[in-house]
Structures are given as C-alpha cells and as structure tokens.
Amino acid sequence: MSGGSSLALLLFVGGASAVADWRERRVPNRLILLGLGAAAALAAVQLAGSVLGSMGRSWLGLGALYMPWRWYPRLAAHAGLSLAAGWTLWKLDVWPAGDAKLYLALSALLPFVDPNIPGFPRLLFMVFLINVFVPAGLVFALEGLARGAASWAAALAGGPWLVAKAAADRGLVRLREFAALRWQAAALVVNLAALFFVLQAGERVLSGPGAGPLVRIAAFLLMYALWDRLAPVLRRPRAGFAALAAFLLAA
C-alpha cells in the first residue's frame, strides 16, 4: 500500500472516530480495530517485501522497493512509545480509554504514511501527541472568547453602565476570593518559583549525552499530566515555606 493510501486510511479512521464521538460520545471499538488491523497488515506486507527484496526476488510489486531490516526495530520502538503514552494518559485520567486506543491506532499508522517521517521513532509519538492537544486548546480558547463576546454584547445592549457595574462586581468577587486564599496563592507562587529553579538546575542533566529532547519533553508532559495532583501540594503554606528555604539555600 502506498503512502497516499495509508494517509487516506488514517484520515478515514480519525474522521469517522471524530464523527462517532461527536454523535455518540464514544469512539467505537470497530474503528480502533480497523486502524490497528490495518497497521498490522501493512507491517506484514512491508516485512514480506523486505524478505523478497533481500533474496533478490519480486512478486506483485513486493520486493521491488523494500525497507531495510533496521527499520522494523524502529517501528516496534515507535509502537511501544505510543502505547506507553496512551496508557499513561489513560491511567492519569487525562483521556478516556477510547481516546487512548484511538491515539495508539492512528500513531501506529503514521510510519506507513512516510517511512522517513521526521522524528521517527524517538519523537514521532510525542510530536503527534502535542498536535492532538493543540487544536483542542485552540477550540476551547475560541469558544471562551465567543462566550465572552456574547455576554459583553448582551450587557452593552442594556447600557454601558451595566457593563461597568458587572465588571466591578466580578472584580470584587475575585478580590474576596483572593483575600480568602492569599496564603495558598503565595505558597503556589513560591513553589512554582522553586520548581522553575529545579528545572533550570536540572537542565544540564536533561541536556546531557544520550538524553536528547525526548527526556526534556517527557518531563514537561509528566508535570502537565500530574498537575491536578501537584497543585494541592503546591498550595500548602508549609510546603511554600520549605520550598522558599530550600530555594534561598540553593541560590
């Protein structure tokens, strides 16, 4: 199967899954199995072509152009990294199981679209993962802007003084909330500063020989995935005092 056919299959599985998820609030297993089965079939066809090509033979086009043997361990490494990323995000409750399985199926198809795709095999799964989250973030941001614009338009229809009054009321509410949580907010600022210092201090380790960008990206992804569990700890005043003392001592 050519790269164009593999791309068409990937787009079909992804598009059909998006439509099904929009309508049914779930990703059907049949589409995930289609993607995984297609990836396995493509790997088998590629392997057959490599066997024939290494023997100097050709059959129905197989063996005329074939992948070298070193490509298959790289394919396995990419599949393993994709599985680990999807499983981790599922266990951390970032994704439901259907989304994690769909990510694995689509990620497994990517190397067949272009066997020399940049980042393969060490970073391709991460690049794909980032590009999964970025469009969703843009959609949420645009949705928030649209709702804000609609509320402002409705307020302006009632007169400019209503807009000013509503803004003042919201400001007072936020000020009271901040006053009630001032120590937690201060602790969070201190702990984030200490965390930034730790990341800066560890930059030499993360950039060391053999680490490469994969370790750095994985560290930030892990921190993002664990943020819901880290944030309550980082808001504790005692943790803030301890972090401040450690920060000053290290500085």
Q: How does this model look, in words?
A:
- With 251 residues, this protein is mainly alpha-helical.
- It contains 11 helices and no strands.
- Helix 1 runs antiparallel to helix 4 (97-113), helix 3 (71-91) packs parallel to helix 5 (124-157) and helix 5 packs across helix 6 (160-180).
- The longest helix has 34 residues, at 124-157.
- The N and C termini lie far apart (58 Å).
- 16% of the residues are buried.
A few lines on this structure:
Helix content is 80%, strand content 0%.
Topology:
Elements: H1 3-24, H2 29-54, H3 71-91, H4 97-113, H5 124-157, H6 160-180, H7 182-201, H8 203-206, H9 212-225, H10 227-234, H11 237-250
Helix pairs in contact: 1-2, 1-4, 2-4, 3-4, 3-5, 5-6, 7-11
- Determine Rg (CA atoms, Å): 25 Å
Mean pLDDT: 81
| H and E string | HHHHHHHHHHH
Number of helices, counting only DSSP H or I runs of 4 residues or more: 11
Measured as a percent range, the helix fraction is over 70%
Largest sheet: none
Low-confidence stretches: none
So what's the overall shape? flat
Determine the strand fraction and express it as a percent band: under 5%
Extended strand count: 0
Span between N and C termini?
Answer: 58 Å
Secondary-structure-derived class: mainly alpha
Oligomerization status of the protein chains: single chain
